[in-house]
Design a protein that fits this description.
By secondary structure, the chain is of the alpha+beta class. The protein has helices at 4-11, 142-149, 182-187, 210-223, 250-253, 284-290, 308-321, and strands spanning 36-38, 50-56, 63-64, 78-85, 88-99, 102-110, 117-119, 125-132, 135-139, 191-192.
Length: 325
């Protein structure tokens, strides 16, 4: 349970100081504790970290489902995401709707005994886990968290109708076992209004091939938080976020055979494409996903290792599925 002072300040619309220990945030993943465990069908790449995720809605709270592409959560909603490297818990992140106008971000680092985690300073923490090759996992600053989460109408990225669709993508990179999905939310009456008819035609990435579906789903999950129509990035026409009912997917319509503002090394002006059909080696999308140079890397935050499984998928999609007949 949360401390009484914490609850009273939240009810009054004030943001209390973050608890110094993870257990004081209401985090209790044991069965029967009231937390809802879930797993997105397109997990976010975080340098190979294994993850677990939980949601707790306030008592009687439901998710506003009037806009299926932009779920709204009641005040008091809390999400937790645990990161593990080499079988050990390293950090757990908290996303908490503290007031009607304020989402709060925080990270907690697990102690050596794995029994409790402590609040990380606002500036984040370097060297939280060894990734090999002289690289290490960094626990992000709160500003870094906001940079990724506030570029859409809802700051919640991995808990969406698409991510919780029971029509899960069998080719999704780093797929995890399905946990709570749209069927569970409907059964528990956690959506307002309820949409049982959506279970007959659940959300799905639209693509001509199974590999294209997985590639576009991966890009929507890993890049769509910034590359979407609501983001404050000016002059960027690359839209990778999924939009229900869109056919073709924005990720297809804005990448395939489209010119790239980023110029591939050694290429002349106007000679680079985001996705050049049949040629992944000539596609800036692939180049920037693979690069870890600060001026080229995409996504620019959150990883120090390229996602080789995703790169193999996207290369095969461009080389084989998009090649001219």
């Amino acid at each position: 349970m949360l401390p009484l002072a914490f609850l009273l300040l939240t009810a009054a619309g004030q943001v209390p100081a973050l608890p110094p220990r993870l257990s004081q945030t209401g985090f209790d993943p044991r069965p029967g504790s009231g937390l809802l465990a879930y797993s997105p069908q397109y997990p976010l790449w975080s340098d190979g970290a294994a993850k677990s995720r939980w949601l707790r809605l306030p008592s009687g709270g439901r998710i506003d489902d009037r806009d299926p592409g932009d779920w709204k959560f009641p005040v008091g909603t809390r999400f937790w995401k645990e990161f593990r490297f080499n079988g050990r818990k390293v950090e757990t992140r908290l996303l908490w709707r503290a007031t009607a106008g304020r989402w709060v971000f925080a990270s907690y680092r697990w102690r050596e005994n794995q029994q409790e985690a402590d609040l990380v300073p606002p500036e984040g923490l370097d060297g939280a886990a060894d990734l090999g090759g002289g690289l290490s996992h960094r626990i992000p600053s709160r500003a870094d968290c906001e940079d990724c989460h506030v570029n859409r109408a809802s700051p919640v990225l991995g808990f969406t109708a698409l991510q919780l669709s029971p029509d899960r993508d069998p080719l999704a990179p780093h797929a995890e076992p399905a946990l709570a999905d749209l069927r569970v939310l409907e059964d528990r009456k956690l959506l307002d209004p309820p949409r049982p008819e959506r279970l007959e035609h659940p959300p799905r990435i639209q693509a001509p091939t199974p590999r294209g579906r997985a590639a576009l789903g991966y890009l929507a999950a890993n890049c769509g938080q910034c590359h979407n129509p609501e983001a404050p990035i000016r002059g960027v026409t690359l839209i990778l976020a999924h939009r229900d009912g869109a056919d073709p997917e924005p990720g297809w319509a804005t990448t395939v055979a489209r010119p790239s503002h980023f110029r591939l090394p050694g290429r002349g002006e106007g000679d680079s494409m985001l996705v050049r059909p049949g040629h992944p080696e000539d596609s800036t999308l692939v180049y920037r996903m693979e690069s870890r140079h600060p001026a080229a890397q995409m996504p620019p935050l959150g990883t120090v290792l390229p996602d080789q499984d995703a790169l193999a998928l996207i290369r095969a999609w461009i080389r084989d599925d998009l090649a001219a007949p």
